[in-house]
Every structure is written in C-alpha cells, then in structure tokens.
Amino acid sequence: KMGAVGAANAMAAAIRGKGQSPGARNTRGNRAVQASKSYRDTSGDNTAEGAEALYNSRNTHLRKTLEKHLNLNDMHIGFEQGDGHTTPLIEPLPLFDSIKQTTVALIINNKSFSCHLCLTKERVCFSRGGDHRTMTDYIPLEEVDKVEALQEGHWSITSSPDGINSGRVYEFRNLHSDETLTQSQEGAPVPATLNRSTSDTSGVHEESGIWVNEIMQARERKHLREHSFMARAQKWCRFIYDSNPCQIFIAVLIFANFFIVCVDAQARPDEPNSEYAHLGYYIDKLDVFFTCIFIVELFFNMFGHWFVDFVQNPWSIFDVVVVTISAIALATTNVPGVSVLRSIRALRVLRLAGKLRSLKRIITALMASILPVLNAFVIAIIVASIFSVLGVEFFKNRVDANGEPINDFLTFARAFYTLFKVMSFQVWVDEGYPVLKPTNVTASDGEIIQSFTIDFLVLFYLVCLVISVLWVLLQVVVAVLLDNFVQATQKEERMEAVKRLNDAEDANLKTGGLEPLLKKMSNLFDTSQQLTFGIARLFFVLDYDETGYVNFQELKEGVKKLNCEPRINLQWEDFNIVTEHGELLNHRGELSFLKFDVMMRKQLKVYVQRHLTDVLAIAQRSHNIENQVMISALRFMVLQQKEDNDNDKLRQRVKRIGDRLKNLTNFVQDPGGGHLRRVTFNSSSTSSPERSPMDGGGNPGTHHNPHKPP
User: Fold this and answer.
1) In terms of Cα–Cα distance, which of 552, 561, 605 is closest to 579?
2) Per the database record, which ranges form the EF-hand domain (predicted)?
3) If we measure between CA atoms, which residue out of 385, 411, 421, 408 comes closest to residue 457?
4) pLDDT in tens, 41-75
5) Is 692 exposed, middle or buried (0-12, 13-18, 19+ CB in 10 A)?
6) Could you tell me the sign of the dihedral formed by the alpha carbons of 247, 248, 253, 258, in that order?
7) What is the torsion angle, in degrees rounded to the nearest 10, for the CA atoms of residue 329, residue 331, residue 334 and residue 335?
C-alpha cells in the first residue's frame, strides 16, 4: 500500500515538473531570495532573518495543508469558551499579564519562524506563526534549566528533562518588532501593548542578554515565592490541618466543649447558694482552655488556606464569627451586659458540621432547602391570614350568656392567635373552646347554670381551616422540604462521584488516555464547522515543527500543555489505541491532518457512546422507563450514524466512478481527437476496437450508443 502511494506521488511530481519551466519550478526559492535580499538591503542581516522567518511561517507544509480545508484566520477561534463557564482548551498569549514581550525568530530544524514571545510571572509563552490568539507552546519557569546567550543575537532556553517539555531546547533570535509583527498576524488585530517600534539595529545583540537576565530573574523570583520559608510553612500547615487525624481531633474537642457547656447550664454554679458552686472554677478554666485551642486552630486554618480558599469556604467564615464572639465574651467577663455573649458557646457544636462529611452534607442540604420551604410557608401564612380576616368579619359580634363580647375573633391579631391555637391542636383551659358558645340554663330548682352550645358556623369555619392549612398546605411545606433535601443530597453525592471519576480518568488506558481532552472538547463546539476549526487549531499547536504531520512524541508533549484537568499523560499504548493500531499512520509513524481529524472525530463519537451507555445503566437502575427509551433511541442513532456514513461514502465513490467513466467515454468519442481510437461495443459479440471514420478505418456505419454503459 505504501509502495503504491509512493509511486503515485513520484509520478505526480514528475508530471508537475514536466509541465513547468525551470523558472516556474524555482519560483518559491526566487521569492524567498528576493524577500531576504530586499530586507537585507534596507535593514541589515537581522531583518533578513525576519524576512526569512516571515516567509517560513507562511509557507510551511502545515499551513498549506490547513489552507486547503479552512481559513487560517477562522482557525484561531476554534475551541474557545463554549457556554461562558467552560475555560478554553487552547489559551491565547497572555500579553496583558506579561513582564516583557517581543517578536523573535524561533529556530526549528535550522529554519526560523516568526514568533511572539511573552514572559509572565509563571512561564515563558510564545505563539509560533505570529498570531497572539493561539499560544502554541510555553515553558514553566520552574522547568527552565538553562538560559544562555549565543553568538550573533541568538539565545536559547533549555527545559528540564523531567518537565512537560522533556528537555527540549528552544533557540531564538531577536528581530525588529516594527518590521515583522504586523506582517505575521495574517489579519489578526495587533494588541496595543505590542505596537512598539525599535529602529536601532545595534541593540539586537544587547536585547538577547536582556532577555536572558529577565528570564533568570523571573525564575528566581518564582523559586523564592514557592520555596521560601513562608511558602513551605503554609504548605505544611495546610497538609496537617486537612489530614483526617487532625480533623477528628478537632471534632472531639468541639464535642467535649459542648458537653462542658451543657454541664454548666445544668449545674448553674454561678447562682447563689448553688450546691454545685465548687464546679464553677473548673468550668471557667475549661472554657478558657477550649477558647484558646479554638483560636489557635482558627489561625492555623487561616494561615494554611489563605486567602481565596479560606474566604470562599462558608464554614471558615462561621468559625471566625463563633470564635471571635467567644474570645470577646472571655475577655469581657466582668463587663455588665456583655456576659450574655457566653451563650454563643453553644453554637460551637455546629462547627462539627464543617469537620464531619456526613453532617456537612445534611447541613448543606438543609441550607439549600430554606428558600423553597419559605416560599411554601409564606403561602400557608397568607391562607391563614385570609381566614383570620374572614373570622373577624363573621364572628366579631359574638357575645356570651351575660352579653359580654367573646374575644376569640374580636381583632385580626386575636383571630390569628385563635387560629394558631387550632392549627397547633392546643387550647388553653382558661380561655375555652372557640366552637362552644356559653349560655345560661335554668335548672329545675330555679338555679341558673352556665352551659355551652355548639356554634356550627364556627365549627364549619374551623374545619375548612384545618383541611386547607393543616392537611394541605403544611403537608406541601413538608413535601417541598423533603424534595429539596433529597435533591441537595443527590447533588452532593454527584459532586463526590465526579471528583472520584476525575481522579480515576488519569490512569484510564482503555479509552486511549484522551478522556480529559474529549470531555473538554464536547463542551466547546456547537456545529461541525466549529469542531473542524477546533481540531485544526489543536493540530496546529501539536505540530511543533510545522511539517504537516504529528508523531507520537509531538502528541505526547503537546497534550500535556492543553488546558485539561487532570493533565494528560499519553503513553504508547494510548497512542496505539487511538490510531487503530497504526492504521491511521503513514510509513514514518505520523498522523496527517486528515487522519488526525478522523481520529479525533471517532474518539469523540466513542466518548459520547460510552457515556450514553453509562447514563442508560443509571436510568435502568432508577426504573425510569421514559429516560431508558429516550437514551436507547439516542444511542441507536449514534451507533447507526457510522453505517449511514459508510453508505454515503460508498454512494459518493460509485458516483465519482460513474462520472469518471462518463468523462472517459466523452474523451474517447471526441470527434476532434483525430489520433484517438473509438471503442465500440456490440451486444451480440465481444467488443473489439475499430478505427474511427476520422482515421479512415473501420466501419463508418457503426456508432456507439451513448446511453448504453460501456
């Protein structure tokens, strides 16, 4: 197969060379020489280097391959932010966070390419080809092994062999930013921070030394930030505080403190003539001990997680409030009116929810249920208020046997209070029942006895209240509470499951090791064209030397630098799987752009199929018939797509063969081709070639039927 491809390429090259003049065959070389000569005549050797870098950046095999399929200017928007919450897969050049930036010539395999170079506090970034919208490579400052200035304005960066760049050496040459920058953007807008002009050609060699010093100083500063005593101490504090033994020890202290608070409330040793007065001394000392321990624990937590992690954790803020109030109450023991703050000690036990995962899940679910429950509770309050208004209107004139007004429904507040007693199934003895109306009854001996009669209108009114509020609305409140509690609990469980899944994806080799990349890609495109732009941009980043092909080493080093979590560590087994055991590779073991596009689309499709299968299994366990049918249909459609695509390809291939046969027939039967032979076909005998009438041979009366296929 490879031999046939090589022979076809050789024949095509021979045909192209045969049909061109020697001058035309050397057009590319002539353009490069003329461009370099014009730059050399105006600005010297370094601008000639810039012309060569600009020409090489625009005339690589990679760019010519991509230009056949898409617009390079549109390619740089591939895999941008999808829904506003997903970070881009390939980051732009961080120009506005840079310490120093310039335009240089990146030398790869003795060829120079125009490149934007940018130094930040964390890494050295550059954009090969000159478009700042795509950061093609970067070197973390902690992985810079050596930076040295070479001769004639050249300088190099050697990366660490154990880092993400695997010991690669980057060689640069300084250029004039005003002569190469705007030309190499290929239509992309030039940021204002890069519109600098340097006309002094003598400063190019000095600029190399400046860059070497800047990178070395930035590396030292980052080393001091990450390996200083404070940084190591903070990392150590965080590790110790987040460990399980430390959290269990803090939880035991919180529970012991709560037990002492309960004993203090029961014994009340501060009361005069208390039989437990001797316990007051020990309780006060233990209170001081626990408060000091919690203050130390708070500062330990604050130092280890400062600043963002500490502030964004609501349990840490709760710790600050409780511990601060406890410290104030301890410091102001003898101040009148402030001792009430000691009651805040009872809230310390709630800090257990931030230490124990099971309690934390319950408290978080309850907090998430507060707002929906309040909405349902407001509806119940409104209905009760309506009944209170109706009670005032209907029963405000009720009187007892002595003509005194009955106060149950005299005002709105009194009516609401009466209805609240009814809803709580509680009645105060001295106030009587609202459904009973007192009357005076004369006994047989003439004695007047107070009795009660049932007020059926009030009874009907209260029955309607109980049915509408107690049996319906309050049950709705409970149902909303349970529903939101279950949803919040399931959300916490899903978050923990996703975290465990992400931890396991890094070691997953059965999917080709590209699981984080495929997961990120699935959220960064909406149409097939956007997917094409994204795959082309990804291939542009991975093809470091711009040969138009990507091998295993380039793919392994390139995917490490993509904005994926967790970071992809591609192995040879992974590469063998995604390339279908070498079927997509050429004879040199490399992927072309078309094969890379096929590989990524197939892996993305397999990723979708696998997740549909997982979701279908979850739906089957939950006995959700509707979701099972829907997901099964989607899974069948995805699986059927390959067969439909194969059929479409077969139909297109048959159509192309038919078109070629038709063109061949027209070409053979061309009456203007005096030196061509016409091929005729006889249905009754074997077809035989005959001379065309134009050649003076054959049977002039025999004609080929154009409607009958040869």
Assistant:
1) 552
2) 530-565
3) 408
4) 333 445 555 666 666 667 788 888 898 888 888 88
5) buried
6) positive
7) -70
